[in-house]
Amino acid sequence: MTDYKINPAFTITDEQSLRSLFGATHDLAIQKFQDKLDKHAMAFISRAPFLCIGTQNTDGKADVSPRGDPVGFVQILDEHTLAIPDRPGNNRLDSLANIIANPNVGLLFIVPGFDDTLRVSGTACVTTDPDLLETMRVNDRLPKLAIVVKVTGVFMHCAKAFRRAHLWDSDYFQDRSQMPSLVKIILDQSTGAPEDPAEQRKLDDDLEDAYKTTLY
């Protein structure tokens, strides 16, 4: 595949040029921005079993990480503060290391069946406060730490993206088996996947077994 080259003649490099392509921002789009969690934002967060957290390091390298747990897993400590448990993962620690380097974060809360989403921005820190972690116990296991977010911006995001994607419409669900398994993809990208299908199936089965015992 030939590398794509951006034509600099069509590159937008300043905000004025960007905004000239669009109409004026609707008053409600401006007014909906809040600096704290109101009752509607709290209700949305309390229903969300899933969010994405965007972080950056000091060099501006960005990362987005999914976080999921039972409904209500993100704790609302007050109208300006959220706490997110950190569950076992791959130990890359990209988001956590970024937060330590640069505390600015963006959160996108998603509720299954809802086409609208909730966007939250703020500053985060990583804590091992035992009293807080105790409230996040699941299956008698505590998280090693939690992400605490001081909220500076909150607003509801409209449904257009999810409607265009037909995200919750089962008629548009795709067959996962049409792509290789996660294990095979990672092995193809790294050390190489086994040629023996039986060996590959065992690796896939081992991952499924690990899911059952390492979620918490």
UniProtKB/TrEMBL annotation:
Domain Pyridoxamine 5'-phosphate oxidase N-terminal: 37-156
Stored InterPro entries: Pyridox_Oxase_FMN-dep, Pyridox_Oxase_N, Split_barrel_FMN-bd
Pfam families: PNPOx_N (PF01243)
NCBIfam families: PPOX_FMN_DR2398 (TIGR04025)
Name of the protein this chain belongs to: Pyridoxamine 5'-phosphate oxidase family protein
Domain of life: Bacteria
